[in-house]
């Protein structure tokens, strides 16, 4: 089968767009990259690609697919791999359901608390929001990562390779494990120590995920961290 022609409309500072990069790299797919400037109104040509003006969008053999989770799962479905089992395989439906539930939990329970910490007006508010994030990880996510009978690998449910769960969360894990540094100040300084003490499964998992080339190959911590701090902190300080 001929390789697909893929154009990825993206921005390397956006954690949602980063999801598509992880999937494309993990699947070994070549693509053309078009950077969209998110700091100015979208140009008319891009609104024809995606009327919402968001990233990522992809053109896949001329067909447009938008929204980060949809783009990422589309790529995983179009190119069967370790990321996501086929729904017709014996364990496929239940594994897909587990991944979907995990990602929904991460996105709905953790990301809002992470964003609240980023947007906090004072150090006290930031630290309280960071504690709320740790508590949510402890209550909602810690037990899903390595349940009884799981494999020995470091990824979701003991997988030896990345799954769609990591493709859809890895960009946020990079930020979780970087943004408590004082030069960014977007998470409380106790965050990593709290993860190590209270959520060792999550810390083990996140630490393994961010080491993967497919997760970090477009990551520029200093650029993303400084950009995020400039975006969120001026109004707070």
Automatic annotation (TrEMBL):
Protein name: Glutathione S-transferase
Domain GST C-terminal: 92-232
Pfam family, one: GST_N_2
Signal peptide from the UniProt entry: none
GST N-terminal domain sequence ranges: 4-83
One cellular component (GO) term of this entry: cytoplasm
Species whose genome carries this gene: Aspergillus rambellii
Domain of life from the UniProt record: Eukaryota
InterPro entries: Glutathione-S-Trfase_C-like, Glutathione-S-Trfase_C_sf, Glutathione_S-Trfase, Glutathione_S-Trfase_N, GST_Omega/HSP26, Thioredoxin-like_sf
């Amino acid at each position: 089968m001929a390789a697909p022609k893929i154009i990825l409309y993206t921005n390397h500072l956006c954690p949602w767009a980063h999801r598509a990069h992880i999937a494309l790299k993990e699947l070994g797919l070549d693509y053309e990259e078009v950077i969209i400037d998110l700091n100015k109104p979208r140009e008319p040509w891009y609104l024809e690609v995606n009327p919402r003006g968001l990233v990522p969008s992809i053109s896949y053999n001329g067909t447009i697919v938008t929204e980060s989770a949809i783009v990422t799962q589309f790529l995983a479905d179009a190119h069967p791999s370790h990321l996501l089992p086929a729904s017709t395989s014996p364990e496929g439906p239940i594994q897909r359901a587990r991944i979907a539930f995990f990602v929904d939990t991460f996105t709905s329970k953790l990301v809002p608390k992470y964003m609240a910490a980023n947007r906090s007006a004072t150090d006290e508010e930031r630290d309280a929001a960071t504690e709320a994030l740790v508590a949510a990880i402890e209550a909602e996510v810690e037990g899903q990562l390595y349940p009884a009978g799981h494999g020995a690998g470091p990824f979701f449910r003991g997988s030896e390779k990345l799954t769609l769960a990591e493709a859809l969360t890895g960009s946020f894990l990079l930020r979780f494990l970087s943004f408590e540094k004082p030069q960014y100040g977007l998470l409380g300084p106790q965050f990593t120590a709290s993860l190590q003490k209270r959520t060792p499964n999550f810390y083990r998992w996140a630490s393994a995920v961010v080491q993967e080339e497919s997760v970090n190959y477009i990551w520029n911590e200093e650029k993303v961290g400084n950009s995020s701090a400039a975006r969120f902190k001026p109004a707070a300080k």
